[in-house]
Amino acid sequence: MDISIVVPLYNEVESLGELVEKIADVADAHGYSYEVIMVDDGSKDGSWQKIKELSESYPQVRGIKFGRNYGKSPALHMGFQAAQGDVVITMDADLQDNPEEIPGLYRMIQEEGYDLVSGWKKKRYDPPSKTIPTKLFNAVTRKVTGIHLHDFNCGLKAYRLDVVKSIEVYGEMHRYIPVLAKYAGYGHIGEKEVVHQARPYGVSKFGGLNRFVNGFLDLITLVFTRKYVKRPMHFFGTWGVIFALIGGINLFYLAFIRLVQNIWISDRLPALIFGAVAFLSGILLFTVGLLGELIVRNSSGRNNYHVSQRLGFDHQEQMHRSS
Q1: Alpha carbon of 114 to those of 42, 124, 283, 288: distances in Å?
Q2: How many angstroms separate the CA atoms of 275 and 230, rounded?
Q3: Radius of gyration over alpha carbons of the chain, in Å?
Q4: Structure confidence by residue, pLDDT tens digits, 92-108
Q5: What does DSSP say about strands 87-90 and 157-160: parallel, antiparallel, or unpaired?
Q6: To 10 degrees, the CA torsion angle through 51, 56, 57, 59?
Q7: Average pLDDT along the chain
Q8: Of 1, 20, 120, 174, which is the most exposed, with the fewest CB atoms less than 10 Å away?
Q9: What is the DSSP letter of 266?
Q10: CA-to-CA distance for 313 and 215, rounded, in angstroms?
């Protein structure tokens, strides 16, 4: 199979038919063998029923339905697990991503040898409340990661199949898939300027201060775990020693002047409290922080999601079982 197109969606029933029709037109015009994997992230507007209808008219359409809303990253994770095409292309379901971009993305992966190609919506049709935080977010991400992309969060991307099989997208890490790919050893990352179309139906499901704050928290988590997950004591140990030494020296000094010089320390109560807090903080950095990070990082249930229905995967599952 040439292409797997993964489409995460939530309450986008109006646009699905038009999207699949445009994808089919492009694929047929270029002779691609393809599949469209639609991951319904717990929609309540009839999106799943529409996917089932489309699968009857287009045998290339497959569906995965979550039992509830988990988010875009879990939807992409399940789509990546199911993908079989040599090139995997992700796009949003709201028709702001143009299927006409597929041949260019496919060519950059297959002919130019990129591991990953990210779309860049140079001209956007989003409100300032979304574009201004996005520009700041992209600038910080470029500085921190060393990956020079204009738009990390563009939903229109293309990957070699082994890239999506080698990374794990969880939580809200879909914003940082290029970073995850680079950290996994896939450093040939390119960018393609793509057309951003105005949303014809509905309203955006993402935005607001919460999304902006979570993006930077995820970046800190990603960089931290990449740098320290295999040697966590290099971080926790260093700061633990620093805090424990500061607190220990302070407490030792107070004990010395009380026991040796017989000076009452009642007027040095702030120093006593500071020393105790610093010393205990050093101990806690060795325990709670380290154990908490390792437990979360290695949780076996992190990517367990309730998939209530699957559509169009029976043949593949039979092939896997027979092999």
Answers
A1: 33, 25, 46, 41
A2: 31
A3: 25
A4: 999 989 999 999 999 99
A5: antiparallel
A6: 90
A7: 84
A8: 1
A9: G
A10: 33
